[in-house]
Structure formats: C-alpha cells, structure tokens
Amino acid sequence: HGAITDPGPRAADFAGLPADVRALTRAVQGLVFHYMADETILGWRPPKDRLPEIDTRRVRAMLARLAALDPRPLGEARPPER
Predict the structure, then answer these.
(1) What is d(CA 41, CA 37) in angstroms, rounded to the nearest whole number?
(2) Within a domain: residue 77?
(3) pTM of the full predicted structure?
(4) Domain limits at 51?
(5) Which residue has the higher pLDDT, 51 or 5?
C-alpha cells in the first residue's frame, strides 16, 4: 500500500467483503455515492454540510467516515445517506 491506499487500523474492515469481482463491485457501489451521477438514480442528494467529503482521497479517511456514518460491516447494504 501507498499513502493513499493504506487502510491503516481499519484494514480489518475489508474482511467481510466478497472476493468475487462482481459481488465486490456491488458492495462498493453501496458504499460510494457519486454526488452528481447517483442523485438521478437513487433520488438522494448529499446535504451541503457533507459536500467536503468529495475531497476525501485516502482510504484510511474513507473507511473512518464510513464507520462513523454506519458501523455495520462494509458488505452490508446501507441507505444512500449512510
């Protein structure tokens, strides 16, 4: 891992994710919301106070934010606001 991709202390969060590429893709699509494209599909727009999350680049920070929004394992489905 490099500085951007290192999950740090949250590495164990990946344990429950599927190894199958298609299933993994579906899991990731349930975790990452594209603020422009997914609004039309999901009918949800991120509130203005969450827009700074767009600039989150490091995996460690992304995993920490996901856990703060919803502590369930990454492989479990979440509503768009989580």
Answers:
(1) 7
(2) no
(3) 0.80
(4) 8-69
(5) 5
